[in-house]
Design a protein that fits this description.
CATH class: Mainly Beta
Family: Belongs to the dynactin subunits 5/6 family. Dynactin subunit 5 subfamily.
CATH superfamily: Hexapeptide repeat proteins
Strand content: 25-35%
Number of domains: 1
Protein name: Dynactin subunit 5
Keywords: Cytoplasm, Cytoskeleton
Order of helices and strands: EEEEEEEEEEEEEEEE
CATH architecture: 3 Solenoid
Helix content: under 10%
Subcellular location: Cytoplasm, Cytoskeleton
Organism: Homo sapiens (Human)
Strand order of the largest sheet: 1-2-5-8-13-16
Shape: elongated
Structural class: mainly beta
Number of strands: 16
């Protein structure tokens, strides 16, 4: 599957030294526990919950609008425990997705609208046509 160009307003994004582009309209809770490994794009209205546990996102990933990334949890008799969440390289998360309880290391994994429909499709992330490339 070929990804089209994703155009954006440069003033609406913060670019990090490692080439990550994070929308100013996104919410990063517990940013000290969030690692974006480079050239990852987090679009507007996304929420990444690093305040619950460590969140690690690989290189060349795209998190589209209104998606939520939160660590997995388990209920115990004495409370709730949260566990680290790891997303590998070349992962494309579509709009309006909720990603929870993952530890994916597959290359080019594609999430579309829900984690339960996690069809692993070729995201063609290596395309040289993306306008959001670094």
């Amino acid at each position: 599957m070929e990804l089209g160009e994703l155009l954006y307003n440069k003033s609406e994004y913060i670019e990090t030294a490692s080439g990550n582009k994070v929308s100013r309209q996104s919410v990063l809770c517990g940013s000290q526990n969030i690692v974006l490994n480079g050239k990852t794009i987090v679009m507007n209205d996304c929420i990444i919950r690093g305040d619950l546990a460590n969140v690690r996102v690989g290189r060349h990933c795209v998190v589209k609008s209104r998606s939520v990334i939160r660590p997995p949890f388990k209920k115990f008799s004495k409370g709730v425990a949260f566990f680290p969440l790891h997303i590998g390289d070349h992962v494309f998360i579509e709009e309006d997705c909720v990603v929870n309880a993952t530890q994916y290391y597959l290359q080019k994994l594609w999430f579309h609208h829900s984690l339960s429909s996690q069809a692993a499709q070729d995201s063609s992330q290596g395309s040289s046509r993306s306008a959001l490339r670094s």
